[in-house]
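The protein record filed here:
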Amino acid sequence: MHLATDMHGSFGGGDISSTLPDEVEVTIGILALQGAFIEHEHALQRLFMAPSFLRQRKGINWKFSTVQVRSTEDLERCSALIIPGGESTTIALLLRLSSLLEPLRAFSATKPIWGTCAGAILLAKEIANPKKGGQEVLGQVSVRIERNGWGSQVESFEAPLEVPKLRNPDEPFTGVFIRAPVILSLLDDKDAPIEEIARIPEDLLPAQSCDTNTNKEDRHAQALVALRQGNHFLTTFHPELTEDDRFHEFFVVECVLDYVLKARGKQRL
């Protein structure tokens, strides 16, 4: 993250720097090893160009940019990161082959990350029924998750989601579920509460999961398809495959800018 230190100077002989908003650069990376990273980048670019998107918030002029992340040098430029949908085991393997896995672990410990579908699996603390040999995870979100919870590609579907915390909350968001994972349960984590963002009607849940002893509390968790924990954001579906950028706006405004403001405040102490 680069913070602009130059102010606009003076006008008419008087210094007006104290009355002008600061300028802060925010670079959002999209992990570009496999999966729908182009779609995420296009969604962010649409969002940043939209007249309805306010670039001046909390007395700051925000300057946004995106970068496709394929190396540690790319990652070091980022204020936040999106891990796209794709194939979670393939992405994990490519992270290791690219020498990105450990830098990404360190990044995820403090900076905002949004995982969609496969990215959600990588963010989870526990994976039920992992592939033989196990699977690398970042372990940042306190959920137990199941890969391909709704079944194979042919069982993909769309569903309208009511999301009160999005802009225009009365307008449903179309959730695109493609070999989507299912959140089986929430794990105990008293220091970082989980914020429910979106749920799917329980009658659309798969009939069975690999966890046979499903109680009422877990059934409630399984209907969760979007949640936030601290700086991290998780969606089991693909917002980037629609023309509706409200989930991208939520991540930027609620997770990324909140983190940047807090980090900036600490730098000034």
